[in-house]
Amino acid sequence: MINIFLFLAIVFFFTFVIGKLLEKIRIPWIFAALLLGVLLSIYSPFSSITSSPTFTFLAQLGMYFLLFIIGFEINLKKMKKKRNFLIKATFFIIFLEAIFGSIVIYFVFQTTWFIAFLVALSFATVGEAILIPILDEFKIINTRLGQAIIGIGTLDDVIEIMTLISVVILIGSRIQTPFNLGLIIGSLFVLFALTVGLTKLKKQGIKFKFKNIETLFLFVVFVFFLFLGIGIYGEIAPLAALLAGIGLRTFIPEKRLKLIENEVKTICYGFFAPLFFLWVGASMNMTYLVTYPLIIILIASVSIAAKLLGSYVVGKREFGKKKSILLGIGLSVRFSTSIIVIKILFDSGLISVGLYSVIIASSLVFTFIIPILFSNLLVRWKISKIKE
Question: pLDDT, tens digit, for every residue of 298-335?
């Protein structure tokens, strides 16, 4: 019986070797771990390890570190200048997909309009953690396109929280759920207060002398886990990781910012992120894909068409045709915290196993296909070479 250490050795060796081959076709090397996960979802002699609490914990840390890096890369000054565009684009794109999706769900699965809209709205949100390695690989995080994708992906977390609260309030006692509305609101308040506090303490951050990079790294890790710990109480740990990155970016002195960014990226991409992508791939259930292929294609087609239409309408003037299309494709990536809403509705008996399975399967298909499509279009259209 193989132990977890030998399993990790296999994972990192596979990621290293296959990652080199993927780089030759301009796909980020880290998606080799996702490919391995997909293979393990078909047949896995290591299921006892990949389903263990230890591995799940490590994989979730990978997701949180990726979200932390997203927050760390967000340029608040640029976002403030484009806040009107980001707010308008976020709500227009997300709600356009939610409207089209709810129509399909209502007629195909015979749900109520309200449930159909909740499912479609949660499905429409973005799993931005999947996309960050690509943005980083092609050096477009700090471009207008990169900041728009990150900004919309961050703002849509607000929609996810609003949807979750709506489910808890409006469906109420019919749902057997551990979510506590008071804890959610309280955690949000504390996290935003801490984030604003760090941004307001910029001058104090300069005075706070970090003698070496090790002590600065310990401080960053402290803030990271503090935010996560608070976020866990309200089931908003992904948002907490984002806010931790945003707050620290504004607090840490500019001279130290690049150094600590490299340290965080090393531990994230070098250890935790491959485990996260393996976890995502291994969580796929091919049974769903075989059982409901036509419905999955329908849901996926409506979803991406709505994203592309919405992105093209709001982004054509801002980015041009090609970049607005890339915006829509990038925002189609899944694996978002919104799956919590789907799980609550399923556990309460308000949606059928068929609808639940189709949504999960569609999310997993998007998770695997969109990053590859996005990477190849970046290369074909030479977007990464355009200076802004």
Answer: 988 998 999 999 999 988 888 888 889 999 988 887 75
Cα–Cα distances in Å, from 237 out to 6, 64, 185, 188, 229?
A: 30, 8, 13, 10, 8
229, part of any domain? yes
**CATH number of the domain to which 131 belongs:** 1.20.1530.20
Alpha-carbon distance values, 47 to 37, 191, 289 (Å): 11, 36, 20
89: Cα separation from own chain's centroid: 18
Burial environment of residue 5 by CB neighbours within 10 A (0 to 12, 13 to 18, 19 or more): exposed
Instruction: Choose among 241, 198, 238: nearest CA to 68.
Output: 241
Q: What's the alpha-carbon Rg for the chain, to the nearest Å?
A: 20
pLDDT digits (tens, 9 = 90+) for 162-200: 776 666 555 544 444 455 667 777 887 888 888 888 777
Structure tokens at 18: 């296959």
How many whole angstroms separate alpha carbon 237 and alpha carbon 302?
30
Amino acid found at 186: G
Query: How many domains, the chain?
Result: 1
Q: Which range marks the domain in which residue 133 is found?
A: 62-385
DSSP-derived secondary structure letter, 269:
I
Q: What angle do CA 129, 132, 134 make, to 5 degrees?
A: 135
